[in-house]
From TrEMBL:
Chief location: membrane
Protein name (record): Uncharacterized protein
Keyword Transmembrane helix belongs to the record: yes
Database matches in InterPro entries: MetI-like_sf
Membrane topology per record: Multi-pass membrane protein
Transmembrane annotation, as ranges: 44-68, 88-110, 138-161
Length: 190
């Protein structure tokens, strides 16, 4: 979604045409000319998504209190506490959250630097076999993270229906009560 928004702002067709004029295939032109620029353009959006993902509360609050709490929820509970111990834990927790965010920011910049350096060397070599391997690697990476996303969504769905990590899968008391309480449309339908 991020790349589609940036794709409308950049002259991708002209870059692909220039790549064809230089003798690159369309996929090689994409990887060598368009992708590095789009990666740099998407940096701020990726950083914002990483920061939001690290500190998100809404998904874990939607799933319910019967599961082990995520770090952001525990931190929120400490921040809203009134004792000195809770405030001290909230301060240390916020420092840890900032440290984790710093690691994620460094990871984004490191990933961008490695990708740009690698693509620059591929542009100099202009070896189509390396570019084809890179395209296959990206396709496998995309498939892996798509499966990971589906697994996370399935886990959220199972948690919302009453499964948690303390129970075996057969002894779960399946219920749509959370969905009925949270979604007003489901009250009329269920």
């Amino acid at each position: 979604m991020i790349f589609s928004a940036f794709g409308r702002q950049l002259a991708i067709k002209n870059w692909l045409l220039q790549g064809r004029a230089l003798g690159y295939s369309e996929s090689a032109s994409w990887w060598l000319l368009v992708f590095p620029t789009m990666l740099k353009q998407s940096r701020l959006a990726l950083l914002a998504a990483m920061a939001f993902t690290l500190s998100v509360l809404d998904i874990s609050l939607l799933i319910g209190p019967n599961i082990p709490e995520l770090y952001a929820v525990v931190l929120y509970n400490w921040q809203t506490g009134f004792t000195a111990d809770e405030q001290a834990m909230a301060f240390l927790g916020n420092l840890l959250l900032l440290l984790m965010l710093g690691v994620l920011v460094a990871t984004i910049y490191g990933h961008e630097w490695i990708a740009a350096k690698r693509l620059r060397s591929l542009a100099v070599l202009a070896n189509p076999m390396h570019i084809t391997r890179l395209s296959r690697l990206f396709t496998a990476w995309l498939a892996l993270f798509s499966l990971l996303t589906l697994a996370v969504l399935l886990t959220f769905l199972l948690w919302s229906l009453g499964w948690n990590t303390q129970n075996s899968f057969n002894s779960v008391n399946w219920s749509t009560a959370l969905w009925q309480d949270e979604w007003f449309l489901c009250k009329n339908l269920c």
